[in-house]
TrEMBL record:
GO molecular function term, any single one: kinase activity
Domain of life where this protein originates: Bacteria
Family annotation (Pfam families): PPDK_N
InterPro entries documented for this protein: ATP_grasp_subdomain_1, PPDK_AMP/ATP-bd
Name recorded for this polypeptide: Pyruvate kinase
Membrane spanning stretches: none
UniProt KW keywords: Kinase, Pyruvate, Transferase
Length: 859
């Protein structure tokens, strides 16, 4: 391209001489005292562009009066900033891409974006992703911003990104321009202030004239960040005691931290006080929304604090969480140069492919120095206390979408040098950020019709609840609770009383389907009720391992429960600062078997069932009240995560660390159950052990994993069976599909069942687990686990068939006697695997369930 074609004009000849002309690719940022001043320099730029026949676009988004007068040869495009940063930045990006090369642009005032976003950081992010794209396309673009309204950090970022940064002043009716940056050009007087008089621009070179001018316009203080200014206004409103000021500040902070609409915003507005919001904003790093998990935790705690039961306030631990705002996530993407890839991921073709590349990159980026300094200050606050870094995306834990287990949560044990602790924390944040682009998270969002929505990743940093026990750190108990007991195994259980899934130690073992381990299921209408377990196998189906934080290993580890119990007399790790009898009960079955064998042992024969905690304290009654209070406030069933810590006197405290709506569809209308005169007339029939309410579900296909043949497979082939089940189920999507398998669906351990991910069998309308004694396969819904959440959220019917129990029938030959259609669905399946996964298209098969009679029949 020749020199003549690379040149452009500001429309002011004298200014062109001072800055050696504009170049194609230049972004020109004007710092002004008012938009009226900006019009004085935008008008000649527009006029010259029209004279030269340039394609001219005016990008309109400000609340101020238009900068450019309408004309047939000027295209005016309005882009709405109120839908958030990503939607706005994407809209402008698409606009620029469609207009192509060498277009001329006039933008509205950047400062006006803060009235919508309240964030200097977001304004800087927008400029940093837009300016380079304009440069690449050889455009010339004018941007104004109001002097004194942006922090030095924002101005520094804009200065480093733009090609020209010019100060414009109006003093005593005279107009002055002071170039601060002119990229790639220099002259002896370029960076002096200049007076503009028509087309003439005269440098002010004398020291006397310069000092006189700058004395009139000087301002040396760093303007406060706009976000912090609004937070300070909230503090001031609190101190003022003026109800009107407080109400206005509360509305604004709610909009800034939580959002502008939706049921969770309504709950936050109802229960969070101005003090709550100011405290939250004071503990936020970066700016923007704090995300769904943080909002759920704060709102739930506020609901309980206002509850009628005084025990909620006296027994609930305080929290001192920190929040990484959602704007920080975008800053991380922008600062590392990944915004173009982020845009590509939003396209149908790039959704998974670009997402995979982003997933890899997000785990290895760098944070800006200012952010690193705030991270350091936060870690100095927590010191060597263990913390957990948790995802808190915008869509997470909301009504309709729980995202259970889709995003990462990382424990930081808090040990080592400050440098080591900082590196581990930064790695944890990167891992949470990267999880936003994991294959499973992307599939979840697409399956639920969320792939087009803005899904920023905020982060919740919580102090881990618990205490030091020798070299280990853990709470005495933790788990999950649901206000609606959807899994009833016997008549008489009150579904509305709720249920807990609780373990000794960290509650991580309650939210994952763990290897050969079982949490205690608690029905809150009668907390001491024990789940139905075959006599003599109580210990087999109880907890055997404990998740703890090892201060020596500086990591989350799993230890045998027996190692803590046997060491309680001398090992400091066994001294838990509480009565072990609250968590352990004598294993009478084991004692009886030892007596029958004539053997003695010094090893305690105990079962971890938390029966003492449930029977000798009011903990069960308290948690029933907690769940009922939260559910009533939400006007919806809820799901919580909690911890429990006890003192030597047996007094306890609980900590509410998460709360979200439980995505249940309710009981449904009553169903007329079929009458069976002969047990052979049905595929299966059982009492209790199902969830999904009352159903009458016609079935077009059944995917059945044959247990004996599955048992004969090696470890890797069992994983291959899971993949084949997924392929078959997806191929049947849209039809009435039931999947039946031995042991646990969704386990990570093939010896316990079929290790499918939920996304693989999400197309199934019903999931059935059944016992197979030869392989020790046993159903376990893992109530409250992430897999459970997905079953509930997906409105998938679930039933467990415990063979050998009274009234249980499973006529599997009604499936195996029919032709296997697996190769019709998955032609590439190997003969070995096709022999294990049996697919049939039954005629007139219907699944029935009735909550009142606690019967489930498939006939």
């Amino acid at each position: 391209m020749t020199e003549g074609f690379t040149r452009a004009s500001s429309g002011i000849d004298g200014l062109d001489r001072i800055v050696d002309g504009l170049r194609l690719g230049d972004n020109v940022v004007w710092q002004v005292d008012s938009v009226d001043d900006y019009r004085l320099v935008a008008a000649p730029f527009v006029a010259r562009a029209r004279e030269e026949g340039r394609r001219l676009i005016y990008v309109r988004y400000g609340a101020h009066e238009p900068v450019v007068d309408e004309s047939p040869d000027i295209e005016v495009v309005t882009v709405e900033p109120g839908f958030g940063f990503e939607a706005f930045a994407t809209g402008v990006h698409q606009l620029i891409a469609e207009r192509g090369r060498q277009a001329y642009y006039v933008f509205d005032c950047l400062t006006d974006l803060m009235s919508e976003w309240h964030s200097d950081l977001a304004v800087l992010n927008f400029f940093e992703v837009t300016c380079p794209f304009l440069y690449e396309l050889d455009t010339v673009a004018y941007f104004p911003l109001v002097r004194g309204e942006h922090s030095y950090t924002t101005i520094a970022g804009i200065r480093s990104t733009t090609q020209l940064l010019l100060d414009l002043y109006s003093v005593d009716g005279n107009l002055y321009v002071h170039p601060l940056k002119v990229w790639g050009r220099h002259s002896p007087t370029m960076f002096f202030p200049h007076e503009i008089a028509g087309d003439e621009v005269r440098p002010i070179t004398s020291s006397a004239a310069s000092s006189q001018l700058f004395a009139r316009i000087s301002g040396t203080m760093d303007p406060p960040d706009h976000w912090q200014t609004l937070v300070q206004a909230g503090r001031d409103a609190l101190r003022s005691g003026n109800p009107g000021d407080q109400a206005a500040a509360k509305r604004l902070l709610t909009e800034m931290l939580i959002g502008g609409e939706g049921r969770m915003v309504e709950l936050a507005d109802q229960y969070l006080s101005l003090t709550d919001l100011v405290d939250t904003a004071s503990r936020e790093i970066g700016t923007g929304f704090i995300g769904g998990k943080s909002v759920g935790m704060l709102v739930a705690r506020a609901i309980l604090a206002r509850g009628r039961d005084e025990r909620f306030r006296t027994r609930m631990e305080a929290h001192d969480s920190y929040f990484l705002g959602s704007d920080l996530f975008y800053s991380y993407v922008v600062a590392n140069g990944w915004w173009r890839l982020w845009m590509e991921q939003k396209t149908p073709d790039g959704y998974f492919d670009a997402g995979a590349r982003l997933h890899e990159k997000l785990s290895s980026g760098k944070f800006p120095p200012a952010v690193r300094e705030q991270f350091i200050r936060m870690l100095e606050y927590f010191g060597q206390s263990p913390i957990i870094v948790r995802s808190s995306s915008l869509l997470e834990d909301n009504f309709g979408n729980a995202f259970a287990g889709k995003y990462e949560s990382i424990f930081c044990a808090g040990q080592g040098s400050p440098e080591d602790r900082y590196q581990r924390f930064e790695d944890a944040v990167r891992a949470v950020y990267a999880s936003a682009m994991s294959q499973e998270a992307l599939a979840y969002r697409r399956n639920r019709g969320l792939s087009h929505l803005d899904e920023q990743m905020a982060v919740l940093v919580q102090r881990v609840s618990g205490d030091h026990h020798g070299d280990l750190f853990f709470p005495h108990a933790g788990g999950v609770g649901n206000s609606s007991n959807l899994y009833v195994w016997e008549r008489g259980i009150d579904m509305d009383a709720g249920m807990l899934r609780i373990v000794f130690g960290l509650g991580t073992r309650a939210v994952d389907r763990t290897h050969e381990d079982y949490a205690r299921i608690v029905t809150l209408d009668r907390p001491t009720r024990r789940p139905s377990v075959e006599e003599g196998k109580e210990r087999r189906f109880s907890q055997h391992f404990v998740d703890v934080i090892s201060l020596t290993d500086n990591a989350l580890v799993t230890v045998p429960l027996g190692s803590l119990v046997s060491g309680q007399a001398g090992d400091p790790n066994g001294d838990i600062g509480a009565d072990w009898s609250l968590f352990l009960s004598p294993d009478e079955g084991a004692k009886r078997r030892l007596r029958e064998l004539g053997r003695t042992t010094t090893t305690p024969q105990v079962i971890c069932d938390l029966q003492g905690l449930l029977g000798s304290t009011d903990f069960g009654d308290l948690m029933r009240g907690v769940l009922a209070t939260l559910s009533a406030a939400y006007n919806y069933p809820v799901d919580i995560e909690f911890t429990v810590n006890l003192g030597p006197d047996g007094d306890y405290r609980f900590n509410l660390v998460q709360c979200r709506p439980l995505q249940t569809r309710g009981l449904g209308k009553a169903v007329r159950m079929p009458e069976l005169t002969d047990p052979a007339d049905c595929l299966f029939s059982a009492g209790g052990n199902f969830m999904g309410g009352n159903v009458r579900l016609p079935l077009d296909a059944v995917v059945y994993v044959r247990p004996g043949r599955y048992l004969g497979l090696g470890h890797q082939d069992r994983y291959a069976v899971a993949r084949l089940v997924g392929e078959a189920t997806r191929a049947l999507k849209g039809r009435g599909v039931m999947a039946i398998g031995p042991g646990r669906w969704g386990t990570t351990t093939p010896s316990l069942g079929v290790p499918v991910s939920y996304s693989e069998i999400a197309a199934a309308d019903a999931l059935i687990e059944y016992t197979y004694p030869d392989g020790d396969f046993r159903p376990d819904l893992s109530y409250g686990s992430h897999f459970f959440q997905e079953i509930v959220e997906g409105e998938t019917f679930y039933a467990a068939i415990f063979g050998g129990q009274p009234g249980v029938v499973f006529n599997h030959e009604r499936l195996t006697d029919q032709p296997n259609r697996i190769l019709d669905l998955v032609p590439g399946a190997t003969a070995t695997l096709a022999d294990v996964v049996h697919v049939v298209y039954p005629a007139n098969l219907v699944l029935y369930s009735d909550v009142v009679s606690q019967r489930v029949i498939c006939a």
